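Lecture notes, part 5. Sequence design as translation. It can be helpful to think of inverse folding as translation between two languages: the language of shapes and the language of residues. The source text, in structure tokens, appears below.
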């Protein structure tokens, strides 16, 4: 993975509502991963959906640890 392949996306923590930048790798396609909030340290579930026709188009959904995305 090259840093130039990473796309920054401004998001908000579903727990404390703190804004932070999430770096997304569009080359990996759709995926579900976890990221800890940089403020409250809560585990955030991250669902990334890539458009098969245009890998640069990403939909990002954040959820709490106990939510099903």
């Amino acid at each position: 993975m090259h840093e130039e392949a990473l796309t920054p996306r401004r998001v908000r923590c579903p727990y404390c509502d703190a804004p932070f930048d999430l770096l997304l790798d569009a080359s990996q396609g759709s995926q579900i991963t976890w990221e800890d909030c940089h403020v409250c340290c809560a585990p955030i579930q991250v669902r990334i959906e890539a458009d098969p026709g245009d890998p640069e188009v990403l939909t990002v959904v954040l959820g709490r640890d106990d939510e099903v995305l």
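The translated text above is only one of many valid answers, since several sequences can fold into similar shapes. The mean pLDDT is 86.
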